[in-house]
Amino acid sequence: MSGRISTLLGRFWQTERGSVTIEAVIWLPTMILLTGLMFDLTLILMHHADMWSMASDVSRQIAIGAIQTTDAQTYVDQLSMLASGYTVTAQVASGLVTLDVSIPWTDVTATAWFLDNTAQMHVSIVQRMEPTT
Length: 133
Hints:
The chain is built from 4 helices and 3 strands. The protein is an alpha+beta fold.
């Protein structure tokens, strides 16, 4: 009986069947997680670039007098390519246009489930008013 057990144990230790399965079980979830995080980072960077572009465009339009500060939210809603839900605050004081654009993280990322609902991505831009002629 002990000879049979030692034969089975010897065969067990010598065979490599199933070794790929073990490696796949270890590495596949890691690769899926890394791919998801890269996708999420890409979404964050795209939204951030979109916010900077919108803030720049809107502040420029206010600075040249094409739109009023009260129309900034409507203008951003028209410019937005990626998401809705942007909050815009625009003001003109001492010849400077100050524009703040923000959006909740839950609207930006796919993995924001661990963040609280009050977390925001925020962009602020200040620009001089163009002289009127």
